[in-house]
Write a structure and sequence with these properties.
The chain has 17 helices and 17 strands. Helix 2 runs parallel beside helix 5, helix 5 runs antiparallel to helix 6 and helix 14 runs antiparallel to helix 16. The C terminus is likely disordered. The strands form three sheets. Strands 9-10-11-8-16-15-14-12-13 form a nine-stranded antiparallel beta sheet. Strands 1-2-3-4-5-6 form a six-stranded mixed beta sheet, with helices on both faces. A two-stranded antiparallel ribbon has the order 7-17. A hairpin with a 4-residue loop joins strand 15 and strand 16. It has about 475 residues and is an alpha+beta fold. About 40% of the residues lie in helices and about 15% in strands. It has a domain of about 210 residues. The radius of gyration is 28 Å and the shape is elongated.
């Protein structure tokens, strides 16, 4: 017997209210086993006509799905439920194993649930998906998609068939096997709404072109950029080391900093390094912040991770966090702040080859801004040190550096060690990092080499096409 079946069998002898609570708890456990990232909330109703028993939601997404438990599997009753609830795109979940039927009523239920994006599935079928995930991780991605946007009737046998088809299609796409890939795409289109089916299509397409096969021979829609959503991107990055430069190069064509940061936290594994090798030079950010490294790195080479919803470059002495949209997205800097003198600013700017257009000096009370219309770099002015001295040991509060032709500028604030633009300005990671890092922190030549190698277009010069 299944785990869910064992849980239901153990309810004998309990009061009706206790049984209902235990049934909902068993279903909730069953759902979480199928998709661990999902949140399951229960209501005070049971087997109600139009009030759900459970409500499913996912982190970072506003969309929810309502689950209506049913004590039996009667097709005529489920057809009435579909007519009543179809506008809500619900999950109807019989608590008994659903039977495989091939008659007019069963065909009508299949057709109407697919048209209305209603899913009819029982806990026993979900257990099949969970078991399939252990053998083929892609089945976990499929299960997530089915719970979010599944449609039709999925019995235990059908769950086993779909799992097998998608697992074979995943392997087939990596080896450019047309039939297996096509079968997986057909399975996703029959059992998922258009949005989730498109996500799986893009994943298989990315694997297909990564195999080196011509994109034109892919059996599904030819999305040349192979854009993946957050769940599919995480799945690909968590695969065993995929040493396929062509795959990572093509996958990075549509990558954005915002999409990466949706991963919230992701370790500096080998696949992420490969992906950023071919895409970091294209990525943009609103702001960056330097935070001193708390531990000695195991390697002097720069490493990428996703940390606290920011794209993070790890260097031997500090980390650079990149925020895609706002300074508010950056983690706090709790390290001890050390003031920077005008002389030290001059040395840092000279070492980095950065022209400073404006310097804001402060002594903690008064503030003076120093800039020049005629000179593009005021950090080298001897008069700057004199102004700082007049402020009674004044120090550098912030500086402004022009980027490119001067239409954009980065403001570097020394108290928070943050570099950011004004308004809606966005900067390439290299533009931000090579300005902010050497000005906000004492930076050695090897630090600059690491930053430039990680963020510049050097990798693009060998990019595969």
């Amino acid at each position: 017997m299944s785990q869910f079946g064992d849980a239901i069998a153990a309810l004998v002898g309990q009061s009706p209210s206790e049984r209902i609570g235990a049934i909902k708890a068993a279903v909730a456990d069953n759902l979480r086993a199928a998709d661990s990232r999902m949140r399951v909330d229960t209501t005070d109703h049971f087997n109600h006509s139009f009030v759900p028993d459970l409500i499913l939601s996912w982190p970072g997404q506003t969309e929810k799905r309502r689950v209506f438990l049913r004590t039996s599997y009667r097709i005529e009753d489920l057809l009435r439920d579909v007519d009543l609830l179809a506008g809500d795109k619900p999950i109807l979940m019989p608590l008994v194993p659903m039977r495989e039927q091939e008659d007019a009523d069963a065909s009508a239920l299949n057709e109407r649930t697919r048209e209305s994006r209603t899913l009819v599935a029982d806990p026993y079928g979900l257990e099949v998906f969970a078991e399939g995930r252990d053998a083929a991780p892609v089945v976990g991605l499929l299960t997530h998609a089915i719970l979010q946007g599944g449609r039709g009737v999925i019995t235990t046998g059908r769950a086993r068939e779909i799992s097998s088809q998608v697992a074979a299609g995943f392997s087939g796409a990596r080896n450019a096997a047309y039939e297996a890939t096509s079968t997986a795409l057909d399975a996703s289109e029959r059992n998922l709404d258009s949005h989730r089916a498109s996500q799986l299509n893009r994943l298989l397409h990315a694997l297909w072109i990564g195999s080196g096969a011509p994109p034109s021979e892919f059996p599904g829609d030819n999305d040349a950029t192979a854009s993946l959503d957050e769940e599919a991107l995480r799945f690909v990055l968590e695969l065993p080391d995929l040493e396929d430069d062509a795959f990572w190069s093509r996958l990075g064509l549509s990558l954005t900093t915002s999409r990466l940061c949706q991963l919230i936290d992701f370790p500096a594994n080998a696949n992420l390094q490969r992906l950023l090798k071919y895409s970091a030079h294209r990525l943009t950010a609103k702001a960056c912040r330097l935070i001193a490294a708390s531990e000695h790195p195991t390697s002097a080479a720069p490493r990428w991770s996703i940390t606290s919803s920011t794209l993070t470059l790890h260097l031997p002495r500090y980390r650079i966090h990149f925020a895609p949209r706002s300074v508010m997205e950056l983690p706090e800097n709790n390290s001890i702040y050390q003031t920077v003198s005008a002389a030290e600013l001059k040395r840092r700017a000279d070492t980095a080859g950065v022209d400073v257009a404006e310097v804001r000096l402060s002594n903690g009370d008064a503030t003076v801004t120093y800039a020049s219309i005629e000179r593009p770099d005021v950090a080298q002015d001897d008069f700057l040190g004199a102004i700082a001295a007049l402020l009674s040991n004044g120090f550098v509060a912030s500086v402004k550096v022009q980027i490119g032709n001067g239409s954009r500028s980065v403001r570097c604030s020394f108290d928070t060690r943050t570099g950011a633009g004004n308004g809606n300005a966005r900067f390439l990671l290299a533009e931000l990092a090579t300005v902010a890092a050497p000005l906000l922190s004492p930076t050695r030549d090897d630090d600059l080499i690491n930053i430039r190698s990680a963020t510049s277009s050097g990798a693009a010069e060998t990019e595969l096409t």
